[in-house]
């Protein structure tokens, strides 16, 4: 039976064509060439009319088998090709994440924060607590409770930024008001003494504001670290010993300290502390104005009036206080020639620390 052989040959040819089809499109062409209207199997089946009726069931059965076999092979191959093609597509669209990414530069701690942390570490190491503070203060905390008399020059409009309530009469926004941007961190002494009972050993770093134009040695906004000790039997010797310890820890063992009498309203006696010049080591140079010393902080024994303002008995307790400018520490330690560099945020400068 020639037709049977034709069918078997057709099946074998088609199965090999199917297995060789390399793409879905090529496979579709093979499908049409067998099963399409003008397809090879279709035309073989059309030839059924011409075969004798007794052979038809056998040929019919075989041709059904051939068709099923081809259809199955087609669908299997289609699946294979689809999978391969999808993989191909994914490979083409893939992003290579094995290369290192573009790195974002990591920021550095600002020199001012660095110095505040360094000082805080030194004082925390000898048992001091680190207190927070408020940048907006009332006249009481910034001046009055600190024994600054009403006519003290530090209260004049030149020094202090006052905060004025403009919600009412906006015609006059000048003049002193009860609320201000603190000009010194000393107000935290008052807050801490109001809130805690002695013994008190604390420092409080923070930002302060002054009505000043920025120049190489002045800033309208800078940082201070306030220190306060209140305990029984505290003497000026404790103040000197503590500050000498701090200065050596911060600047180096070889640095010397001296105290000069000064005036601050909230301490009596008051002093300014100088450190030996780090550039000429005390010989005298331009940096220290040929004195061999540079001023670094104000200090003194807490005035009994301040204790009375916060309800601490000055007959029982004594104490000392100090205030140091952080920008000044930065300039002295790293020879920064102009304070404004600390405020400008120029990364070329800041990255060096
Ligand atoms: N508050 C002073 C200033 O801004 C610095 C100061 C001096 C603070 C003496 C003190 C102190 O606590 O005892 O210039």
Structural write-up:
The mean pLDDT is 89. The longest helix is centred in the first third of the chain and has 38 residues, at 56-93. The chain folds into 2 domains: 2-92; 111-350, Bira Bifunctional Protein, Domain 2 (BirA Bifunctional Protein, domain 2), CATH 3.30.930.10. The strands form 2 sheets. A 7-stranded mixed β-sheet has the order 1-5-6-10-9-8-7, with helices on both faces. It has a 3-stranded antiparallel β-sheet with strand order 2-4-3. The protein contains 12 helices and 10 strands. Helix 1 (2-20) packs parallel to helix 4 and helix 5 (111-124) packs across helix 10 (326-334). By secondary structure, it is of the alpha+beta class. Helices cover 40% and strands 19% of the residues. The protein binds 3,4-dihydroxyphenylalanine (DAH). 3,4-dihydroxyphenylalanine binds next to strand 9 and strand 10.
Concise account of the structure shown:
The protein is of the alpha+beta class. It has twelve helices and ten strands. Helices cover 40% and strands 19% of the residues.
Write the element-wise H/E pattern from the N-terminal end onward. Answer: HHHHHEEHEEHEEHEEEHEHHH
Beta strand count: 10
Q: What's the total helix number?
A: 12
**How are the strands of the biggest sheet laid out side by side?**
1-5-6-10-9-8-7
What's the mean pLDDT score? Answer: 89
The CATH C-level name of the largest domain is Alpha Beta
What gyration radius follows from the Cα positions, in whole Å? Answer: 45 Å
Named at the architecture level, the CATH assignment of the largest domain is: 2-Layer Sandwich
Percent of residues in helices comes to 40-55%
What's the N-to-C terminus distance?
A: 97 Å
Name the shape in a single word.
rod-shaped
Instruction: Give the number of domains.
Output: 2
Bound molecules: 3,4-dihydroxyphenylalanine
Give unreliable regions as ranges. Answer: none
Q: State the secondary-structure class.
A: alpha+beta
Strand content: 15-25%
Q: What would you give as the CATH superfamily of the largest domain?
A: Bira Bifunctional Protein, Domain 2
CATH fold topology of the largest domain = BirA Bifunctional Protein, domain 2
């Amino acid at each position: 039976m020639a037709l049977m052989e034709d069918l078997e040959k057709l099946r074998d040819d088609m199965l090999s064509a199917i297995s060789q089809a390399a793409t879905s499109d090529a496979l579709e062409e093979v499908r049409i060439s067998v099963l399409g209207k003008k397809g090879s199997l279709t035309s073989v089946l059309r030839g059924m009319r011409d075969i004798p009726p007794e052979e038809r069931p056998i040929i019919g059965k075989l041709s059904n088998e051939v068709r099923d076999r081809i259809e199955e092979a087609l669908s299997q191959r289609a699946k294979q090709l689809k999978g391969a093609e999808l993989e191909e597509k994914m490979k083409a669209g893939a992003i290579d994440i094995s290369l290192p990414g573009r790195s974002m530069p990591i920021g550095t701690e600002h020199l001012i924060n660095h110095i505040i942390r360094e000082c805080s570490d030194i004082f925390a190491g000898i048992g001091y607590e680190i207190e927070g503070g408020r940048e907006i203060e009332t006249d009481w905390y910034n001046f009055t409770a600190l024994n600054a008399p009403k006519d003290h020059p530090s209260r004049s409009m030149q020094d202090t930024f006052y905060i004025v309530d403009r919600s009412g009469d906006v015609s006059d926004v000048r003049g002193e008001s009860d609320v201000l941007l603190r000009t010194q961190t000393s107000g935290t002494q008052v807050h801490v003494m109001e809130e805690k009972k002695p013994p008190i050993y604390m420092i409080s770093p923070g930002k302060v504001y002054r009505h000043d134009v920025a120049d190489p040695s002045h800033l309208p906004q800078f940082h201070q670290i306030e220190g306060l000790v209140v305990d029984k039997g505290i003497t000026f010797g404790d103040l000197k010993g503590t500050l000498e310890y701090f200065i050596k820890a911060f600047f180096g063992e070889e640095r010397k300290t001296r105290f000069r009498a000064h005036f601050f309203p909230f301490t009596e006696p008051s002093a300014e502390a100088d450190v030996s010049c780090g550039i000429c080591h005390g010989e005298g140079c331009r940096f220290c104005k040929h004195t061999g010393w540079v001023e670094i902080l104000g200090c003194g024994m807490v005035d009994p009036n301040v204790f009375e303002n916060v309800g601490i008995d000055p007959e029982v307790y004594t104490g000392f206080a100090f205030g140091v400018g952080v920008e000044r520490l930065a300039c002295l330690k790293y020879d920064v020639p102009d304070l404004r560099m600390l405020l400008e945020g120029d990364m070329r400068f800041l990255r060096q620390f």
